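Quick look at the format.
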Amino acid sequence: MSTAWQQLLQQAPDADGYRSLLWNGHVFKTFTDEACSRDIEMFTLVVTRYSDMLPQISEQIAAWYPPEWGITAAQVQAGLGPAWVYLLGNPPEALRDLDPIKLTYLEADFDDHIIDVSFDSGFQEIREVLLDG
């Protein structure tokens, strides 16, 4: 089991069952009940690659805003807030077309939108960015 996952499990869940992890200066939140081994692998991948992916994530989110709003990738990166990690490691057949990794940002300080960013299973390619998606 990964060190990140072990540290996550040491944290008490909140009232809704989510646990938080501070890793390399970033806060991640996820639901740990009924996690399969693939979920654990993907969570570890997200946590360890997040710092490398954050500039690309920030650029893609900033591109959603009209230029007159003046929202830059640097502002996005500085103000995203915790990344809520949703994993679909071992989905039933009917859900296999969904993106296996999704990050949701609920607390961005540059905008009130809910921001969803979906990724491939290798956490290398952003597949979709949605606001209030």
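Next, a different chain entirely:
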Amino acid sequence: MTRPDPFDDELREAFAELTAGDRGHVSSFGDVVARQPARARSVFASPVLALAGVAAIAGLSASYLRRNRAATLVVPTEVTVLMTWRSPTDVLLLPPSWDVVRTVPNLNASILDSRPVSVAPTGDVK
């Protein structure tokens, strides 16, 4: 075990003096707990201030809406042309049975009933 350094005692005494000095400036815990909290004063405690705040917000909103309403949106003709453009290869994206997918089938019907019947040149039904 190492011997205690004499400087440690001096340091402890200096901290004890500082602690005692600080205790003289600080309220006791009981005094702090017993104190009533300070009542915060509201900005809108006065009806005049509240009314002025509402009027300011209404005025700013009205001026903002009036300024932005005057600006109209102009869509260039190039944009409208691009919106109506159709790719020439769009037809290739459609599945072969697209009319079957786009229609709602009857629950009592068979898919064979919806297929057209072709007649062979000999008169036999295929």
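The radius of gyration is 45 Å.

See the schema section for token definitions.
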